[in-house]
Predict the structure.
Amino acid sequence: MNESRFLAFAALLLALLIGACSSGGGDTPPLEGAKLGGPFTLTDQDGRQATDRQFEGKYRLVYFGFTYCPDVCPVDLQSIGQAMRQLEKSDAAKAARVQPIFISVDPERDKPAVLKQYVSAFHPRLIGLTGTPDQIADVAKKYGVFYSKEEKAGASDYMVNHSRIALLFGPKGEPIAILPHDKGADAIEAELKRWVK
Ligand code: NI
C-alpha cells in the first residue's frame, strides 16, 4: 500500500496548520489554536447516530482509516489500543477521560456491522464511526485528513490511500496534539499522560 505520499501531504498540511505555534516543549499544546476538528454527524458501529456533541467533556483520540487496510491501520490501532490498556493500569482516571475513535474513510464497505467487529479487536471502548460518502468527506476535511480510492484495473477490490495520523482533542473538541502512532504504545501513553488532565 502506497501511503508515503499521503504521509508527506499530512506532514505538510500539519506544518501549515501548526505554523508559528509550535513551541517544542512546555505546557502549550502543539496544536493549540489550529483550525482542526469541529462538528460532525456520523453513524456508530451499532448503527446509531453519533455526533461530536456526545463526546463533550471527554478527550478524543481520533484516528482515520479503513477496515480493509492490510497493514498500516491495524498496526496503528494495535498501538493505540495497547496504549489505552497501559494507561488504564497506570492512571485509570485519565484513561477514563479518553475516548478512542476510529473514523472510516471507506464508507462503501465499512458498514456498522463491519466496524463493530473490527473495533472490538483493538480496544473494548474504541468507537467506530462511518457515514454517507458526503459525511465522511466533510469530517475528513475538517480533521485535516486526506484520502482517495485507488482502483486497480481488472480487480474488483480497491484500496484507499489515506493520511496516517492520530490526533488528540480536548474535552471541548479543541485540538491538542498529534500522537506518535508509529512509535509504539509507550510513546502514545506518555503523550496521553502529558496532555490529559
Ligand atoms: Ni490504512
About this structure: The chain is about 35% helix and 20% strand. The longest helix spans residues 72-90. The pocket of nickel (II) ion is lined by residues 65, 69, 72-73, 162 (CB under 6 Å).
